[in-house]
From TrEMBL:
Keyword Transmembrane helix part of the UniProt annotation: yes
TM region positions: 13-32
Organism (species): Crossiella cryophila
Protein purpose: Cell division protein that is part of the divisome complex and is recruited early to the Z-ring. Probably stimulates Z-ring formation, perhaps through the cross-linking of FtsZ protofilaments. Its function overlaps with FtsA.
Gene3D superfamilies, alphabetized: SepF-like protein (3.30.110.150)
PANTHER family according to UniProt: CELL DIVISION PROTEIN SEPF
The protein's name in its UniProt record: SepF-like predicted cell division protein (DUF552 family)
Length: 159
């Protein structure tokens, strides 16, 4: 049995370290190869340069980009025409900005159509109220109409 123990000792001392070293070397080589290889080669595709992509069809690409920009600038759906129910319309003839702004916002938030007649207000107050009304409709996605030079109509968003 001295031969069997000698062989076992030989395997322990020489073969196992060599096998572990070889496995580590192969793993390091595989990792290094994957890190230096481009990602497109790893998934089975090839990289295409911009010049190669546009070769012979630069006009089509430019036209496609222009079409995409035009489509992106359009709204998904045109805004619906609001329906005004006159029984829910509130007519205000403001002369003071603070009270008028409060009344406009209260009625507008309640879902009423608000008609604002600015004929009784001075020019500075009328300008401030027009700015307030346009901001109110913009934030709530309502609609702002100028009926005449001194009358504006605010309609809340209709779902």
């Amino acid at each position: 049995m001295p031969t069997a123990s000698l062989i076992l000792e030989y395997v322990k001392v020489l073969i196992w370290p060599a096998a572990i070293g070889l496995a580590l070397y192969l793993a390091a080589t595989l990792v290094a190869h994957r890190l230096t290889r481009p990602e497109s080669a790893a998934i089975g595709t090839r990289a295409v340069s911009w010049d190669e992509l546009n070769k012979g069809r630069a006009g089509k690409v430019t036209a496609s980009i222009a079409d995409a920009e035009e489509l992106a600038s359009l709204e998904a759906a045109p805004p619906a025409n609001p329906v005004v129910h006159l029984q829910q319309a509130i007519r205000l003839v403001p002369s003071d900005y603070r009270d008028a702004a409060r009344q406009i916002s209260d009625h507008f938030r309640a879902g009423h159509v608000v008609i604002v007649d600015l004929a009784a207000a001075d020019e500075a107050t009328a300008c401030r109220l027009v700015d307030f009304c346009s901001g109110t409709t913009l934030v709530s996605r309502g609609v702002f109409y100028q009926v005449s030079s001194t009358v504006v109509l605010l309609t809340p968003r209709i779902d």
